[in-house]
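Hi support team,

I submitted a single chain yesterday and got back a structure, but I'm not sure I'm reading the token output correctly. Could someone confirm the output below corresponds to the sequence I sent? I've pasted both exactly as they appear in my results page.

Thanks,
R.
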Amino acid sequence: MLSELVLATRNRNKVKEIREILKGLKLNILTVDDFPGCPEVIEDGATFEENAVKKARAVSRFTGKAALSDDSGLEVDALNGEPGIHSARYAGEGCNYDDNNNKLLGLMKDIPEERSQARFICVAVLCRPDGELMTARGVCEGVLGKERRGSNGFGYDPVFIVPEYGKTFAELDSELKNRISHRARAFNNIKELLKL
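Hi R., thanks for writing in. Yes, this is the structure output for that exact sequence:
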């Protein structure tokens, strides 16, 4: 059984969500910020899986501990799967969440509502110190709105509507989002594997 693991991300929003999802595990959860000099991993893989594996391996090697990473993004059917693995930098290097949402809303403004299907995808990878990998995938289906709604969450949350609730991720409270989101589904699968 693992006694501790390192979250292989510097994204404070992700850290907060992952800690909430993994609550209940008897684990000391660290982050890369606890390890000065931990390298920044370039996410240049062709898939979510490649990027997540690359981050988990690099952080595990550097820290000597189990590392848990994820790569996630939004796929929009009408945009042939974009932004996909480029979700974080969709509007270009140095962009922020608003820039990405502005670009996405601009591209979707003339797309009819019935063609606005999208999904969030998350691939979580746990790399043990011996190099063994555990992988889990989570998907949350939805549609894109025509405007931002809500103030919770981050990234594309204000424009991603979960049809069964009629609300964007940013309008849901964090407890509900952390039960139904792509990240919750992937990390809950990892959580179950960690209990074995």
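A quick pointer for reading it: The mean pLDDT is 95. Let us know if anything else looks off.

Best,
Support desk
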